Amino acid sequence: MLFNGFSQNLSSTLSHVDLNWKLDKLNFKFQQAAYLKENEYLPSFSFSKKLQNPTNVDIILTNDLYQTVDKSLFSEKQLQLIQNSVILKQNVGFERKQAIAGFSIFPYRFNNGSVEILKSFGSKVPALRSLRAIFFTPLKDDGLCEKP
Fold it and tell me: Mean pLDDT of all residues in the chain?
């Protein structure tokens, strides 16, 4: 079989985000927050980045700054969702044939028994090396390529 391929390096991206939390009648909120049922309606932060080609991506938080908040402001179900580090999710999708990486941050963590919220952070999407899409072109018995 003949192998044809290409690869794409996703360049590093570093940006800084301030969430500017507000407490309103015992509800946490910040601009551009998403309130999902799966997160018991606690606000989470999402953003996206266009890609040249579909690929798997990852995200790293840098310069993250946290603030301790009163545990009693959360329901028991909400507290069960919070882990020892913020939860980062990523996926790749398409919009009008354009590959887009989507990132979601659940900005809460437990630290020494206290709940902390992520106040600000930088994000880095590391460059991916050696990611390759391979296309297979079958050969005929005489060694010539078949038409796809």
Answer: 75
